[in-house]
Design goal:
single chain; Immunoglobulin-like; 23% helix; 20% strand; elongated
Length: 194
């Protein structure tokens, strides 16, 4: 054990002589001062001068741009903050196709969670609105509804098949019901694993 302690002491002594600036001053005073001034900021490539430009990933086309077009989420073109029309009241309901084998025996592996839902229904209250005034546009993840009095831009919680939906306007209640089939390509695999 003493031999290990002695070798450790010798190693520490050798290290201290390597790092000592007194011996370095005798050999090369310029090198000793340079080594003494090295800090964490000296790690990595040298800082760029003012003449060098920032990498092309951070260059923006217009100096007033806050973000690039790739960073803007889908359907944000419908978000018009200057539009004074209020948002109508709406209710989003997730739906499942449930049969007796699901209800009594639980054979299909479905549960009451939203993961097992196949469709969604959005009920939108539009008082004092006619069916001919409603303009509805459904994208995969966004529903845009415009009327002369109301505006609704709704980001959907799940992707949907935009061409397979149905909309029905009930004039007596002034309610628009939009039924959308969810687009879930992995459901056949996920539901079999249960």
């Amino acid at each position: 054990m003493e031999s290990q302690g002695l070798s450790s002491l010798q190693s520490l002594h050798a290290l201290s002589t390597l790092l000592s600036t007194q011996q370095g001053d005798e050999e090369d005073p310029q090198n000793a001062r340079g080594c003494a001034s090295i800090g964490p900021g000296d790690i990595g490539p040298p800082p760029k001068t003012s003449n060098e430009q920032v990498s092309s990933a951070y260059i923006k086309k217009n100096s007033k741009d806050i973000w690039s077009e790739e960073e803007v989420s889908e359907c944000s073109q419908y978000d018009d903050l200057a539009d004074p029309r209020p948002q109508p009241e709406y209710e989003l309901i997730l739906k499942q196709n449930v049969g007796t084998e699901d209800l009594f025996l639980g054979l299909s592996g479905k549960d009451p969670s939203s993961m097992c839902c196949e469709a969604m229904m959005i009920k939108i209250k539009l008082p004092e609105t006619k069916a001919t005034d409603v303009v509805l546009d459904v994208k995969e993840k966004f529903l845009d509804l415009r009327t002369p009095k109301y505006k609704l831009g709704l980001h959907l919680p799940h992707p949907v098949h935009s061409r397979q939906g149905k909309a029905q306007f009930f004039s007596d209640r002034a309610v628009l019901e939009v039924s959308l089939l969810m687009n879930r390509p992995m459901d056949s695999i996920n539901l079999q694993l249960k």
